[in-house]
Amino acid sequence: MQIFTRKIMAAGRTYQLRISQSDQHSHYVDHLYEIFKDFVRMVPRRVVRLSFSGSTPKGRWVLSTLGHHSLQFYGRRFYKKSVKCVPKDISRFLTARGLAVYG
């Protein structure tokens, strides 16, 4: 699973959420789309690329939010100097549902 933020340098510092999942997890991308649909312009889309060996096409579903200041808190919490990290106070963010989805 790949979920990450990206800094957008337009009108100040803000963050964008980018989600990328294999074909077998497309339902999860649809679920996240329903949560973030007020922050996206386009529905999830399928991208096909060749595997590392170059012989097999691999499909992925991707979704990107617009850059928004409300994502800044999470971007700063879970990324330090552009490297993913687990915050020391992670228990503040965990719920039973979150553990079921991400665990």
TrEMBL record:
One of its GO terms (molecular function) is endonuclease activity. InterPro entries: Homing_endonucl, LAGLIDADG_dom. Residues 12-101 form the Homing endonuclease LAGLIDADG domain. Keywords: Endonuclease, Hydrolase, Mitochondrion, Nuclease. This is Putative LAGLIDADG endonuclease. It comes from Ostreobium quekettii.
